[in-house]
TrEMBL record:
This is Probable peptidoglycan glycosyltransferase FtsW. It catalyses: [GlcNAc-(1->4)-Mur2Ac(oyl-L-Ala-gamma-D-Glu-L-Lys-D-Ala-D-Ala)](n)-di-trans,octa-cis-undecaprenyl diphosphate + beta-D-GlcNAc-(1->4)-Mur2Ac(oyl-L-Ala-gamma-D-Glu-L-Lys-D-Ala-D-Ala)-di-trans,octa-cis-undecaprenyl diphosphate = [GlcNAc-(1->4)-Mur2Ac(oyl-L-Ala-gamma-D-Glu-L-Lys-D-Ala-D-Ala)](n+1)-di-trans,octa-cis-undecaprenyl diphosphate + di-trans,octa-cis-undecaprenyl diphosphate + H(+). Its EC number is 2.4.99.28. Its main location: membrane. GO terms for molecular function: lipid-linked peptidoglycan transporter activity; peptidoglycan glycosyltransferase activity. Belongs to the SEDS family. FtsW subfamily. The chain crosses the membrane at residues 12-34, 54-70, 77-95, 115-131, 143-160, 166-184, 191-212, 271-297, 309-328, 348-371. It comes from the Bacteria. It is an enzyme of class 2 (transferase). Keywords: Cell cycle, Cell division, Cell shape, Glycosyltransferase, Membrane, Peptidoglycan synthesis, Transferase, Transmembrane, Transmembrane helix. GO terms for cellular component: cell division site; plasma membrane. It holds the Pfam family FTSW_RODA_SPOVE. It comes from Priestia veravalensis.
Amino acid sequence: MLKKIFKHYDYSIIITIALLCTIGLVMVYSSSMITSITRYGQDSDFFYGKQKGWLIIAGFVFLATILFPYKLYQKLLPIAVLGTFGLLGLVFLMGHTAGGAQSWLKLAGASLQPAEFAKLTVILYLALVLGKRQEYINDIKRAFIGPIGLTMGIFIFVAIQPDLGTGLIILMIAVAIMLCSGISRKTFFKLILLGLVMLTIMGTIGVLTGQVTENRIGRFTGASDPFKYAQGEGYQLVNSYLAIGSGGLKGLGLGESVQKYGYLPESHTDFIMAVIAEELGFFGVFLVLGLLGFLIYRILTLAKRSKDPFASLICIGVATMLGIQAFINLGGLTGLIPITGVTLPFISYGGSSLLSLMIAMGIVVNISFFVNYQEKSSKKANNVVSYPNNANPDLS
């Protein structure tokens, strides 16, 4: 029985996730070994040990999630929504600050970042609601006011922590799901116009309430001309350039990074790809990006194959989350966009990020089971032809 169940999972997704997590664990150790000693006064494997522990927990959660039918999340979603707002609210009451943002909660001795799980809540909520509203999906008032309201509520909670990077990821996930929900071209442009108006209003409110701080402006100036501000806002970006440039084609060798010796303060989180480029060169970067690209491609292919709107929109949301998060991380360390503190999926150090990603991947793999099973059952049904009295057809 178990053999029949497990043969329907998409193992290309599972293998890709395993490879990314393995590379991430190795690079967390390599990139954090100096920081662990000099900055935190710990053993060289301090962050490696913590990440390994999170990976073991996330692995068990992943296995449980792939066996849990994705349709049952429809019943659990109200609890997830209330829990998300509750945890985001607790952040302001008893959260602790790290990296300039009050985004973490201490629960059972572990630090959790509720905003990471909020992304998954938004994906499941929008997929369920818009999947059920296909009959009137082009009626913006009936189909989209509720989803927009919930998304904006979560975005505001996250953005004022302040964690604008994660907030923007949540917004872009919502936009992708809404635009792929089966709407017409006319509704598409109406939603885009509505989004631009809302962004303008939020930007104005941000300026008036002092959310546009000198530190945030400095991130833009640092990204625009990092060498001019090399001793200030452009410090990390300049050292990121040095790491990427010195790696060349083959890299300096695993563990041989120079920039991780205090020049890149967040070498195991935000700037871990710069260390990969320095130690493993172009080939290492190409491998990581290739695996991430392949994973996104497989998830989008699964979305296209699924006949259930709920499953299809979940896959679109998860693929968007991976793609946007990777783009923002890589854009920050290459100077394409300001640095936001967003981590690289599966690679950067971070327990909350890893756990939320593995839950999302577990849901996707569970969807692959149902899609593959339905397609195989459909092929069998199409190949079965019955004849009266068990007679063979006359082919003469």
